[in-house]
Write a structure and sequence with these properties.
This protein has eleven helices and 19 strands. The protein has helices at residues 39-50, 52-60, 72-85, 94-103, 118-134, 148-153, 184-196, 205-215, 257-263, 270-273, 280-284; strands at 22-23, 29-30, 90-91, 155-160, 173-177, 179-183, 219-221, 229-231, 233-236, 242-248, 267-269, 276-277, 286-295, 300-306, 311-316, 319-323, 327-328, 331-332, 339-345. It comes from Esox lucius (Northern pike).
């Protein structure tokens, strides 16, 4: 199903145009002509370009397994060169859109003219980059030092159940994820519970909130069938430089939009996000919000913090604007859209 869904109503009162909003020429937009329905790809592209860690690492890659007219690596290299050197303020993303459609033709995904999911597009672009530069290693066990997706984005985890009554443990199940998905309903329910238990929000609350929300309803029977029902424990075994969080809307007409926005934090500690973190560097890591892909009114757009000018920018296909970034009580209100997929870096 759709990982992001449609957030529905509840935001009309929050949509405002801040006075400080102004055009900023150096940032480039991406074209999306009527019928192209490329906003999902344009959003994923803006994220990859504006993530400094990805952009600099990708620039250093020179050799790859080329797939000619369906080569996503070549298409990305081409558009990144235009981002860097073109004097045009609006660039076409057609070459990448075409390569994506040809690559996934057999699965009938990301086809020309058809709207698709920005989070799934983002993940699949990362996995195709892995294929082009590390084709000899499997997606789930890639340890290649030059593989940007696995070295920078991948969260290497295992999950396990431990019974406190009889001591039984399940076999650890290892897996890799590029995006950590969380239900908006669970997020809001946990936010209410946690705020009832403390006088005011604390710096570690956001990571703890995400961990509690991701564990809600994720129960298993005791491995020895002693009768206990157990929560899954997820352990992080590496220290990713970029962490992507995806919010899953449980219905097309959710009324939780405003609650979700006021539950979000801008700082994420990896040690709070999972039951246990094995690497010392990851235990100490504090990551900060740098980008958000948003979905509202059947349309994707992107907010991103530009490190060179120290400003937040808003990318809506061809339109690029500087935006103000108001805070309320330590939490952040994002203007104009519902946040569904956001990125943290150290």
């Amino acid at each position: 199903g759709d990982l992001l869904g449609s957030p529905g109503g509840g935001l009309q009162g929050l949509i405002t145009t801040p006075r400080t909003m102004a055009s900023f020429a150096p940032s480039k937009g991406l074209s999306n002509e009527p019928g192209q329905n490329s906003c999902f790809l344009n959003s994923a592209l803006q994220v990859l370009w504006h993530l400094d860690i990805f952009r600099r690492s990708f620039r250093q890659l020179t050799t790859h397994k080329c797939m000619e007219d369906s080569c996503i690596f070549c298409a990305l290299k081409s558009i990144f060169a235009q981002f860097q050197f073109s004097s045009e303020r609006v660039l076409p993303s057609d070459v990448l859109r075409s390569a994506l459609a040809k690559t996934f033709q057999d699965e009938q995904r990301f086809q020309l003219g058809i709207m698709d999911d920005a989070a799934e597009c983002f993940e699949n672009l990362l996995m195709r980059i892995h294929f082009h530069i590390s084709a000899e290693t499997r997606e789930d066990i890639c340890t290649a030092k030059h593989c940007i997706p696995h070295q920078k984005f991948a969260m290497t985890l295992f999950e396990q159940c431990v019974c406190n009554s009889c001591g039984a443990t399940s076999d650890p199940l290892p897996f890799i994820q590029m995006v950590h998905y969380i239900s908006t309903t669970s997020l809001c329910n946990q936010a209410v519970r946690m705020l009832e238990c403390r006088e005011k929000p604390t710096p570690d609350m956001f990571g703890e909130l995400l961990r509690n929300a991701s564990n809600m309803g994720d129960l298993r029977n005791c491995p020895s069938n002693c009768g206990e029902v157990l929560r899954i424990r997820r352990v992080l075994m590496n220290s990713p430089e970029i962490v992507s969080i995806g919010l899953v809307w449980d219905s097309d007409h959710s009324d939780l939009a405003e609650d979700v926005i006021h539950s979000l934090g801008t700082c994420l500690r990896l040690g709070d996000l999972f039951y246990r973190v094995t690497e010392e560097r990851a235990r100490q890591a504090e990551l900060y919000l740098v980008g958000m892909v948003c979905y509202y009114g059947k349309h994707y757009s992107t907010f991103f913090f530009q490190t060179k000018i120290r400003k937040w920018m808003y990318f809506d296909d061809a339109h690029v604007k500087e935006v103000s970034y108001p805070r309320f009580g330590g939490y952040v209100c994002y203007l104009g859209s519902v946040c569904v997929h956001f990125h943290f870096v150290g």
